[in-house]
Amino acid sequence: MRYLTAGESHGPQLTAIIEGIPAGMPLLAADINEQLARRQQGYGRGGRMKIEKDTVELLSGLRWGKTLGSPLTLVVKNRDWENWLEKMSPLPEHEGKAEAVTRPRPGHADLSGAIKYGHEDLRNILERSSARETAIRVAVGAVARIFLAQLGIKIGGMVTELGGITANVDEPDFPKLWAKAAASELFCCDEKAEAEMKQLIDHAKASGDTLGGMVEVQVIGLLPGLGSHVQWDRKLDARLAMALMSIQAIKGVEIGIGFDSARKPGSQVHDEIGYNPDNGYLRYSNNAGGIEGGMTTGEPLILRAAMKPIPTLYKPLRSVDMRSHEPFEASVERSDTCAVPAALVVAEAVVAIELMNAVQEKFGGDSLAEIIRNRDAYLEYLGSR
Question: Are 131 and 339 in contact (CB under 8 A)?
Answer without folding.
Answer: yes
